[in-house]
Amino acid sequence: MRDCGLSGFSLFTDDPAGQELEHCLKGHLKLCDVISKWEQAFLHHASQRGRPDTSRTVKLIYKNRLYFKSSSRLETEKERLLLCYQVNEEILHARFPISYELAVELTALMAQIELGDLRGVSEVTSSSPTAGETPHRPTADPALQLVPQVVEKFLPSRYWEDNTNAQDIRLLHHKVQEKWVSLRGRSLADCVRIYLTVARKWPFFGSKLFHLKVKQVGGEGESVWLAIQEDGLSVLEYPTLVSVLSKCLYCLTLGVPNTS
């Protein structure tokens, strides 16, 4: 594990009060002390609510806090793998711009990364069925059951959750299955490389996005994304993630004493 100052990765805990927050841990802290303080804070907040949940435990998250584009060539294999999962989380939460077709391809790549080859399913035809046709159904039921699970885990819910048309859902599953089968024989490292190569084409890859509202006099502020990168800040349109304000580079102003 590289130093966080070099890798940009840090260890986080979830919030003991149950809020949608993550707390970044300083490097000098001992894990046993962190767990002890988290449990104390959890019991304090739980007692105030009157219903302490003794089954809950601290959740530790190791993830990228600040992406250093300049040192991407020094990334370890584990760091690249973690970046894939982190980018997928951004995609699921609409913090990464993606089309339907690209979402299907990246879902298949994540399936290959996590589960490997889709066994027991023959090569599907290169042409996908139209909306009026019935997709080809392989006879391998165990393998076929993996596809809906992969879709729910790695594909943004807007593409499947509210769709009540069974034919559309079958077509979606077929497309993911087709892409997944086409990756047969690809190694984990190869799929990680492909995934990150595609993801890094977005100029704001690795940015930390914060949902803000622009203050306006006499009206409700407009929603925007504030993208924080290693070398500056950018403002992106909400929710399209299109840049509306060029990057403001960080600068350091040094005070010069008046010698007159």
UniProtKB/TrEMBL annotation:
The keyword Repeat applies. Residues 1-260 form the FERM domain. The keyword Repeat applies. Keywords: Repeat. Signal peptide: none annotated. PROSITE patterns: FERM_3. It holds the Pfam family FERM_M. PANTHER family: MAX-1A, PLEKHH PROTEIN. This is FERM domain-containing protein. It comes from Ridgeia piscesae (Tubeworm).
